[in-house]
Specification:
- This protein is mainly alpha-helical.
- The chain has three domains: 86 residues, no CATH class; 67 residues, no CATH class; 183 residues, no CATH class.
- It is 56% helix and 6% strand.
- It is globular.
Length: 413
Amino acid sequence: MPNLQATISNQLTATAAQTTLSIQELVTTMKAQGMADQAIRQTLLNDLNSGGQLFGSFKNKLKNTVKNGVELNAKDAVNNKYKDSGVQNFQWISVGDKSVCVDCEGRHRETGTLEFFETIGLPASGFSICQTNCRCQLVPEDYEGENLDKPLIRDKKIKKPLYTNTKQAENYIQKKLNLRDNRVSFNGLEMDAVNDATEAVEEIYKKTGLKFWSIKTVTKNKSWSAAYSRFGNELKLNTRNAKSNIIYKTKAKKLDDIYEKRILDSEKTISELKEKLRVSPNKSLALELKRIENEIDELKKYSRSNVANNIKEVVYHESGHGIQAGRHLPQEQVVEWRRRINKAAENGYSSEWKYKISRYGAETNDILGSQTAIGKKDKYGEFIAESFCAYMKGERSNIFPELLKLFDEASGK
């Protein structure tokens, strides 16, 4: 059997080494930018105390290592029990859901001795794409339990939809937000999108007091899924891209594609420039090469392209624009609120925290064609909206502390 102590020790060593390298890289960068040692020390302490990008990641990896250690120990005990009971041959059972990785899927129902599986890699041993997150199991070869093709899937509770028709949802939100007739329209959306949007709008209202003056659907042949109008305090859902969660997820991939293409194009340009410089050194080309290399390094630092994974979270994002505009507050408090939240966003945007939100949150240009004229001039609008979406999803450790404090204030905490 594998040495569990050695396995966990190696994982802890690797985690510590990765964190050390990240700290060294960050310190080197800050020194190169002229930061004083005291300021660097304070930045690291802030990250440690707030569970930031460096130490928050380290803490999460430690938790995962402990969790994996417990699971490995349990599997080790089970395998020893099988061995003591005289079980000679085993079969590999993979989780039959959409999350199963290609390595494990190919092993489903494969049989062999325990020594055979130790040689090719036990579940969660790190051989597969899913590595220590593997949920597969070895069971005796003659195991004939129910639903053997999918023995590890628990029955999921089917969430009952809030509403069964669009008009019902429209009337509910209209009454909940105390709006005039015909100020809410989900026309053109499928019911999963209607229910998601309804839940999100009510949740935002209860949590912050933000209520849209109008909610409507539009049909735009553009890549955006939803938009917020500050002047009309209006939420717009694009039926082309937010018609249902399935359609939204397909369209959302376009954002990944935009950034992926940007990275690939930059890598191609870098190769071409290096070849030109090899043949004929040129100062201006060398500077251009350095600029593109810095740009691609910056893009790769982000943890994701965008925060929203479904229609509900799209509404969270757009609500973030409403929170930035102070539409949840009495008019006499709006100007001061906007000053505070924009200043907090500026500070967060200028720090390492922006990499924890998303690439789209760092955009200062309207790459999806969804912002209004004022939106194009709003440098930190998407950073605030993406951060608020993360806030509503419970990702407190990913949010710049000054913004987190303001979101808590808006929520009455």
